[in-house]
Specification:
Blueprint (H helix, E strand, L loop, with lengths): L13 H17 L5 H11 L3 H11 L5 E3 L11 H10 L3 E3 L5 H5 L4 H7 L2 H4 L5 H11 L2 H11 L2 E4 L2 H12 L7 H7 L20 H18 L7 H13 L6 H21 L2 H10 L5 H11 L3 H13 L4 H9 L10 E5 L8 H11 L3 E4 L3 H10 L1 H4 L28 H12 L2 H12 L14 H10 L2 H13 L1 H4 L6 E4 L5 E7 L7 H12 L4 E7 L1
Amino acid sequence: MPKLVARQPPPPDYYADNVRQLMGHVQRHYGDLLQPDEQSYLHGCQRLSPDALRLFARLLGRKGPWVRIDRLRYPEVVDLDCALRELQAATLVEINGPVPADGLLGLLTQKELLALFPSVSAAEVAGKAQRVAHCISSYPDELIVRQVARQYPWVCVARYQVYFRLQVLFFGDARQDLSTFVLRDLGLSNYEPYELCRSQRQFAARTALDLYLRLLALASLARRGGEIEAIVPHVLRELTACHKAGWPSRLHQRVAAKILNRLGRRYERQGDVAGALACYEDSTLHPARERRVRLLKGQGRDSEAATLIASIQSEPWSAAEQDFAERFGIRARCDIPTTRVPLARPSPPRVEQHAIEELARQGDRAWHVENALPLSLAGLAYWPVIFTDAPGAFVNPFQLAPVDLFWDDFCAARQTAMGCREEQLASGFARTVRATFNAKRSISNRLVHWGVMSPELLDALLEAVPESQLHRLARYALENLPRARVGFPDLFVVGSQGGFEFVEVKGPTDQLQPAQRVWFKALQGLSMPARMLKYTA
């Protein structure tokens, strides 16, 4: 049963329990890596009274970082003033701490703003943003802070960077936060049970954590590179310094490569070919070598480009890179079977649904599947592989997939698990997939689109398509996940006289995209019929 019910208040200790779970996990799995300030932070939280911890958990979940105290109303916090004093004594919050004047004024309504700073009302400005700007230009910052503190005191979480590091240790990345608990406890996501082993933790040493945090900071700076010119050389120098000691894991190497690719594209946009090439040469992630080939060809350095293409062909980093090496310099030909049909007037809002209805009138059955079909098939066929133990793959209880699911070397890192699953699938693909479907139907898996992969569709798929072909399609999708996520034909069709096909539906002005051409080529290699249904005006 879900712990939370929509539009009903949570249990009194719900948010506090989430913080306890986060802190307890970090202590158990990473206690040996924590610095004194992080240990004291954990201990300070553990010593809080129920009221203070409830309030602290709520503050951690608030958008801020500054919150007006008069807007803190939580029924589970019995004595707000006492809880605030306790949190302040534990140095977990600051009351009326440092804050920019514009951030502070942003906490006020227009009516409150006019009452505190009367001259603003006389200004011929409209809108809160303009009134805030006028106020800042009319009053010293010190006076603004003093006036607001007297009427509307505020609070913010203190030492937030310490908490942020603990949160990264729990979730394994900087994107997730305490709201993830809510999604689970509303019943929106049911997670596959997997063991969280200290031996498989994401950061084996403190240096690995510090380096990851440093890379996150550099990635943030790299995203701002378009704003501040001096940032780019600084980020490159920092990356070079980090790389000298070597990357402690695939995760670190991947983050660094993404930064280099972003900076390389920035140099390209500026017309700095040398700078772009330098970034791409240090990157280990596609499309770095593709960009190098294109830049070298653009400069007339054909022999260097040819040598690099040969390297890609002999040892491609990914399927997408291999595709590039095979098609570069070759004019793509449209040898895809195509059926052209005049489109009735008025034009339907969705040509895919129109095609399904037209096929039904012919006695065929069709499902709108797109990429959900190959991904879901791969997810069901290789479920144990996806959730097998691997170093750094599962770091918190809220994962729909391992950290490295869409990395190019995902299968290579799980060769033993792949071998075991292949034996099971070879002995009965349809039986194995159907059993997995029935056993896992309520469990979230990033590859399996339960809203698309219905029992009816699965039955039709397993009955119409030979098992050997489905097995090869599932394996292809899993081995090429970054590429398999886009471009699959729109429809799966089962004919009235038997047989099946995949159909890409195009309106009068639509054209095939490169990713769609790649999928057509793959389906031809798998001996699976596919065509384009092209509606004409």
